[in-house]
Structure formats: C-alpha cells, structure tokens
C-alpha cells in the first residue's frame, strides 16, 4: 500500500474510472435482485482500489457491470461508468469488445476460465497481441517472451510452447496476467485473483501486481473478501454490503479508524485477530440479505450491534467522516458524529448526501 502516493495522484488528476450511482438488477421469477444498488466510486491512475465484502454483496456484479458483461435476466438500470472521460454504458457491443481486453483487462479467480486448454500459452498471448496491438510473427513472439519474463515466469522461451495444464496454479495466474498486459490496459480489474492459491503464491502474485502497477501506472480494481489481502494491496477501499458501498476510505484510515459497524465487524474477523483459521469473514453473525427491495432502511441493521429503531425506517446516505481533509465516507445513521443522533437521522432522511461535497 502507498497512501501518500494515492493522495498525491488524487489531488491533481481526473479519475481514470468514475462509477456514478450504478444500479444493476436481476429479474428472476421470484424477485428483483438489486445486486448493485446505487454504487459510486472513483479510481485514479496508479492507484489500487479494493472492493471488499462478504459473499453475495455485489462485488463481482459491479466488476461485470463495468465490463458490460451483464446478461439476461440482469441489466444495468441506472448510472454512469465514466472511463477515460466516456460513458461505457453508451458504448455499442462492438466498441465494448475492443475495450474489454484492450484498455480494460480482467483477471478472475480461476485462471483456467481465461486460458484455452487446446492452445499453447504463447499462442494465446500472441493472439491478444495481434488483436489489440496489431503485432504478429517474430515481433509478437519477442513481446510474448518479454511479457512472460515481466510476470516472473522463468525460462519464458520454452514455456511459451507449453499448454496451460503444464503450468502450476500460480504460474497459470501469472500467464493470465501476462495475457491481460499484452493489451497494455489502463485499468486492470482483478476478481479474487489469488483466492484459489496458497498463501505463499498469493503473496508473490500480489507483489507482482504492485510491481507491474508501478512500472505501468496501472489503475487496479481489486475484489476480495479478505481484509488481509486488502491491507497488502489497496490504496483505497470500498466496503460493500448488500449491493451498496457502506464505507470508502484510504486503506490506513480504514484500518485505523473504521466508522461503519459492518467494517468494524469485518476487521474484527480477520484471521489471527478473530477466532478460527477460516479465512472467510465469518464472525459477524447471520448472512448478507438478498437486496430485493428498495432500501428505505439500513440493510445491515438486522445484524448490527449498534442498530436503533430509526435504522429500520431511514436509509443511510454516505456521510463525510474523515479527519481533516481525508476523503472518508460512511453510510450509517450514527454519522455525522458531532451532532445529536436525531439531527443526524434527519440529515439522512432528507436525502442530503455529502458525497462529492469534499
Ligand atoms: N445471473 C444472476 N442471476 C440472478 N442473480 C444473480 C446473478 N448473478 C449474481 N446474482 C446475485 O447478485 C448478488 C451479488 O452477487 P455477486 O456475485 O456480485 O457477489 P460477490 O460479492 O461477488 O460474492 P462472492 O464473494 O461470493 O463472489 C447475489 O445476491 C447474487 O445472487
Ligand atoms: Ni464475486
């Protein structure tokens, strides 16, 4: 993590990605699942923004919405996804195909979903180089070798001619990252890229991503359910719960001074600080509810140790909770802290969002 750098890049630049009030819903026979329900956040060049939350909180749907990979029965219902100054929601399917794997690349949990078993790793990287950068022949081969070397795959020349099944899990994920980089993306979206790997390999991949980011000024959106991974990799963190971002803060501030009771619960459940060896976020009792109705209340209230009667009838808006100039938001009726709870509740009820005010 590198918060100083993050604050610097944020102060004097435009975000590379700006998600504004994004809403994505799935229309099932039974109900409408508001998987992403009014999500807003920014990512700047050279910055890693983490998205953390329990299973089902809407992290992957957020990523897939940005990539415009939402299929029926799902659809993006509202919002803007400004990338490099243009709204991705307005793009045609053809334009999106060239953006995907071009200026935005994605790395998933299972590298085998990104690799084709019947082609050599080299051919797949070279295909990406041909499609997105117009390279072919020995130029493409040379670039593919350099990419494998850049992601720390030894003996690149030989490994280029091997098939995915000849790679170990960690090496496979490195190959997927090489493929993602083949397109020279500006934004890399990683959805639990290290979850399936053992801890040592996981640490190596995180380190690799940080190196690549520094070299290339990459913006990274990093999805995980693991607060320990967030601490390693993120500059800024969005905490998601039931389709909403309930807290957003620079990583150090989030760990030192979490404001939302949900974030406080997540931090208490980090392995080593909590009870078990299970790395799932498991010490908050109960489950994430399915967000299947308009949030006229706090979706975390049923599990919240600090909930009071108003939490069932007033929807919390993001409030500025940072010390000094820190951009730190929490959506909880307990804030702002410096006024009475009744006054705070009134601000939330009147829909006076503070986002964008600072
Ligand atoms: N194709 C779909 N059809 C119906 N509901 C869906 C679909 N895809 C996702 N959902 C719902 O959207 C919500 C958010 O799912 P999402 O996959 O984004 O969660 P997540 O935070 O990525 O969880 P995990 O950590 O398990 O990957 C869930 O309630 C899920 O059931
Ligand atoms: Ni997911």
UniProtKB/TrEMBL annotation:
InterPro entries reported in the protein's UniProt record: AAA+_ATPase (IPR003593), ABC_Ni/Peptide_Import (IPR050388), ABC_transporter-like_ATP-bd (IPR003439), ABC_transporter-like_CS (IPR017871), Oligopep_ABC_C (IPR013563), P-loop_NTPase (IPR027417)
Keywords: ATP-binding, Cell membrane, Ion transport, Membrane, Nucleotide-binding, Translocase, Transport
An example molecular function term from Gene Ontology annotations: ATP hydrolysis activity
EC number in record: 7.2.2.11
GO cellular component: plasma membrane
A single BP term in Gene Ontology: peptide transport
Catalytic activity: Ni(2+)(out) + ATP + H2O = Ni(2+)(in) + ADP + phosphate + H(+)
Membrane topology (UniProt): Peripheral membrane protein
First-level EC class: translocase
Domain ABC transporter: start-end pairs: 17-267
Pfam families for this protein: ABC_tran, oligo_HPY
Location (main, coarse): membrane
Secretion signal, residue range per the UniProt entry: none
Domain of life, per lineage: Archaea
Localization: Cell membrane
Quaternary structure, from the entry: The complex is composed of two ATP-binding proteins (NikD and NikE), two transmembrane proteins (NikB and NikC) and a solute-binding protein (NikA).
UniProt protein name: Nickel import system ATP-binding protein NikD
Native source organism of the sequence: Haloferax elongans ATCC BAA-1513
